[in-house]
Amino acid sequence: MGRSRMLDQEFGETTLRVLRETVLAHATDAGMPEGRALDVMLAVHELAANAVEHGGGTGRLRMSVTHRELICQVSDPGPASSGLSRHTPGSQRPDATAWISPWPYEPGHGLWLVRQIADHISVNSGPAGSQVTVAFTMLRSGIT
Asked: For 23-43, b where at least 16 C-beta lie within 10 A, e where not — what string?
């Protein structure tokens, strides 16, 4: 394996693309088949986007590999403060310049999608923030 089996990375609105690339590389290096590595990347992106949108604009990903699972934990510091306005993709920003998301957006489908592709999901949320942990079963060599 070319990379560390552990990833601990902070993210924000402007770093989601880099986060996707990093997650895909780590999942692939951990031995996930390409299609399943893409599932991992998509699930983490959805969770990170939720953290940015609803959790104050930043978050942290912790990703680790055991002999049986790839585990991704996405956390955020809590609700956006009243002075920090999060924006719905495709909406107008306060500076009145239009912002168009390069990704299709349907509110409320992110966690549904994550539940469909992850093997396990655990969601904990409260005033101090949210923590979502997803697990993906590692396939043994020679088994597809």
From this structure: bbebbbebebeeebbbbbbbb
Look up residue 91 and give its amino acid. Answer: S
- Residue 41 CB contacts under 8 Å (≥ 6 apart), including other chains: 20, 23, 24, 27
Residue position matching structure tokens 């601990």: 8
Joined tokens for residue 133:
């942990």
Q: What is the pLDDT of residue 67?
A: 84
Contacting residues for 109 by C-beta, under 8 A, at least 6 apart = none
**According to the model, what pLDDT value does residue 94 have?**
41
Lookup result for tokens 């920090």: 84
| pTM for this prediction | 0.77
Q: How many helices (H) and strands (E) does the chain have?
A: 3, 5
CB-based contact 77:55 (threshold 8 Å): yes
Low-confidence ranges of the chain (pLDDT < 50): 1-4, 81-99, 142-144
